[in-house]
Amino acid sequence: QYLRYVAYVIVIASLVQFVEMYIRKTSPTLYRTLGIFLPLITTNCAVLGLALFATLRDYSFIESVAYGVGAGVGFTLAITIMAGIREELRFSDVPKAMEGPAITLMVAGLLALAFMGFSGLLTI
Known about the structure:
Elements: H1 2-26, H2 28-34, H3 37-56, H4 61-90, H5 101-116
């Protein structure tokens, strides 16, 4: 049951990314017009995943609101930290093989490990 929701989110996010790449290649003017809105559709997958997960867990309204606020604060914190680290990396000497997505994925993995330390800290 749980994996079905994860699969929904992954399929939607992947489809949006493929559509974005297709539009970028076939219609650059449309791509420029849509701008940031295409990647933001992928963010909606996180919202969908959050809602589906709250439904799966049979959370009450108050628990769902608390879960949503907590997830929003956590997402904002993670994105802010990631932006700060990427800003520092831009001015750092990173090996040529690790530039771009490679170092970003490594940083994201390390951040995920750091945030996993908080799992189970609060229980509702």
